[in-house]
């Protein structure tokens, strides 16, 4: 396992073609760690940067058994599994969350993602987000990283899924601006009447 840290450093020093690039200074992973605590466990990480996020979360006290990675599979995730064998790894696209429970039915308190949601076809983004929120417990949140200037989820998609989105943090990693958004389900308000002045 001695080669694992070097493999992590080598991967983090290069931009990844899927989603925003993550650099070796861990600035982006630390940005997430400021928002997520052990109280949010279990936690699911989606996308190409899932390993760097998971490493930071574990480093900050979240048990490896309470962290799941969902990605297509890579040399890095295999090495990460060697280092943290208790971690759950699903080598599949994020939409697999619609039919798979990483924690045997236990819902996650948070999902972190660098999936390029704003650039996906609307139908694919819709299915992906719907599958993800199916794994989040009440009061939990979906954290989405973006390097773009706007919310990474289109407004009409937020409306269709009844989601609220707000910017919660930002950082510059190697002069690349990253912004973190938190997405949550809107609370159902039964029996609410809108005042229309009549």
Straight-line N-to-C gap: 71 Å
Mean pLDDT: 78
Element-level helix/strand string? HHEHEHEEHEHEE
Helix content: 25-40%
Name the shape in a single word. Answer: globular
* Count of β-strands: 7
Helix-and-strand structural type = alpha/beta
In DSSP terms, counting alpha (H) and pi (I) runs of 4 or more, how many helices?
A: 6
Q: How is the biggest beta sheet arranged? A: 7 strands, mixed
Given as residue ranges, the uncertain stretches (5+ residues, pLDDT < 50) are 1-25, 189-198
Radius of gyration: 17 Å
Widest sheet: strand order?
Answer: 3-2-1-4-5-7-6
Give the DSSP E fraction (strand runs of 2 or more residues): 25-35%
Q: Could you characterize what this model shows?
A:
By secondary structure, the chain is α/β, with parallel strands linked by helices. It is built from 6 helices and 7 strands. Strands 3-2-1-4-5-7-6 form a 7-stranded mixed sheet. Strand 6 (163-173) and strand 7 (176-185) form a beta hairpin. Helix 2 (27-33) packs across helix 3 (50-59). The radius of gyration is 17 Å and the shape is globular. Residues 1-25 and 189-198 have low confidence and may be disordered.
Pick out its properties.
198 residues, alpha/beta, disordered C terminus, seven-stranded mixed beta sheet
Q: What's this, in brief?
A:
With 198 residues, the protein is an alpha/beta fold.
Topology:
Blueprint: H1 4-12, H2 27-33, E1 43-46, H3 50-59, E2 67-71, H4 75-83, E3 88-91, E4 108-113, H5 122-133, E5 136-146, H6 155-161, E6 163-173, E7 176-185
Parallel strand pairs: 1-2, 1-4, 2-3, 4-5
Antiparallel strand pairs: 5-7, 6-7
Helix pairs in contact: 1-4, 2-3
